Amino acid sequence: MDVSEKGSFNPRSFITEKILWLKETIGGEKAVVATSGGVDSVTTAVLAHHAIGDRLKVIFLDDGLMRKSEPEHVGDFLKRFGLQVKLLDVSKEFFDGLKGVTDPEEKRKVFRETFYRVLGRALKDLEAKFLLQGTIAADIVETKGGIKTQHNVLEQIGIDPLERYGYKVLEPLKDLYKPQVRLVAKALGLPRDIYLRRPFPGPGLALRVLGEVTPERVEIVRKATAIVEEETARMKVFQAFAILLNDKATGIMEGKRILGDIIAIRIVHSKDAMTANVPRVPWKILDRIQSRILNENPSVVKILFDLTPKPPSTIEYI
Ligand code: XMP
Which mutation among 135, 148, 318 tests ligand 1's pocket best, with the greatest number of atoms within 8 A of CB? Predict the structure, then answer.
């Protein structure tokens, strides 16, 4: 995306207005922001830090569903902006909740409930009254439109967070689409690798494992995702990732028939995630991806490349 595409949106006035709004709304209280390291939550964290300084507590939930090296990367990065990140390892709670769950909407709901319950404990420990989150307009439009219940959309679908989880939720970016969030991030002085960062969904690799989400299956897709990201790092694309399908295919190992895993590769161009199309990917890149995935994941016997635009497809598989 081109961050010079400003239109009538003025990121500086947006920043001034939201900092004031956060200061007035939070008053003398404490607030928590849970960051995933993506542009939306990092922008929210930095905005809120400008508004309330050290009364903002930053949490990184290690839910076991993140990409390779993400927890260390996010902590190191936010330190550069004067933000201390508290890492909470809650992966067991997430995997316990997701055990046996295969339905896409059910998975999102289990993720959502676990996410807000875990954060509720953290807010209590930190004596904070507000949770800040980086929900953006596309999340709300898709959820309200009945396409998918994104984990971070609550009030807009009739869930009162105060009543259900015991704290208030503030969403300073909720009227912006991705290109505007990137402009705000850039105007806040965040580095290029953050404001141009490819989106990664809140429920993480749970959305990239079709069927049951187990630590073993997540590990297969985590390794494949790292390979796809590395091999496409120089391409200007909106998202590039791997998905583990919930089916098996016949393969050959040491001259014998085996039933192995199937991985799909999804690479899309998009501006705001509302529509997407598939770019031409140089064959060399696809070939390196397939050979590395097969080498590093002995259980995989088939790798597919997804050609479908959104609509009728969606970017993720669930
Ligand atoms: P879809 O699959 O609906 O995705 O075309 C549109 C964009 O949203 C991301 N996505 C999510 N992000 N929670 C999130 O934070 C979710 O539940 C969720 N589902 C999809 C997806 O990665 C894409 O950028």
Answer: 148
